């Protein structure tokens, strides 16, 4: 009787296939972990923008005479700021003497009354304290506050 030849893979072929598969899987795992960090960084930046919007809305809702809105070169804003985020704000008082040159009365009426300053320029620096994420985690924005418009 003739011996049948068994077909299949040799041990060497299986080891080579596993080595190739291992290299491919390691590459995919590296891409996956990188995408998780990039996604978390994007989420963190979106949180910074949301906190900046929240703080600006809080500032706009405060009365013109609020002590928190006095001119300052930089102070920490802590009201409603979540953990992992810091907010530094600066407020600059200035006056516009001739409103006819800068206003569109249908959109933005000129402030009334004799005030030493009729505008406040608010600048926010919102920063993440999460150091494990990619890039510089800071969001900077500026807005104007008028006394009669909020």
Précis, in short:
The protein is an alpha+beta fold and 150 residues long.
What this model shows, in words?
With 150 residues, this protein is of the alpha+beta class. The chain has one domain. 34% of the residues lie in helices and 23% in strands. The chain is built from 1 helix and 4 strands. A 4-stranded antiparallel beta sheet has the order 1-2-3-4, covered by helices on one side. The chain starts with 10 loop residues before the first helix and ends in a 5-residue tail after the last strand.
Provide tags for this entry:
4-stranded antiparallel beta sheet, alpha+beta, 34% helix, rod-shaped, 1 helix, 150 residues
Overall morphology: rod-shaped
Strand proportion: 15-25%
- Main beta sheet: strand number and arrangement? 4 strands, antiparallel
The multimeric state of the shown protein is single chain
Low-confidence runs of at least 5 consecutive residues = none
In total, how many beta strands?
Answer: 4
- The overall number of domains is 1
The class by helix and strand makeup works out as: alpha+beta
* Cα distance spanning the termini: 101 Å
On the 0-100 scale, what is the average pLDDT?
Answer: 82
Q: Strand order within the widest sheet?
A: 1-2-3-4
Gyration radius over CA:
30 Å
Order of secondary-structure elements: HEEEE
Helix % is 25-40%
Discrete helix count? 1
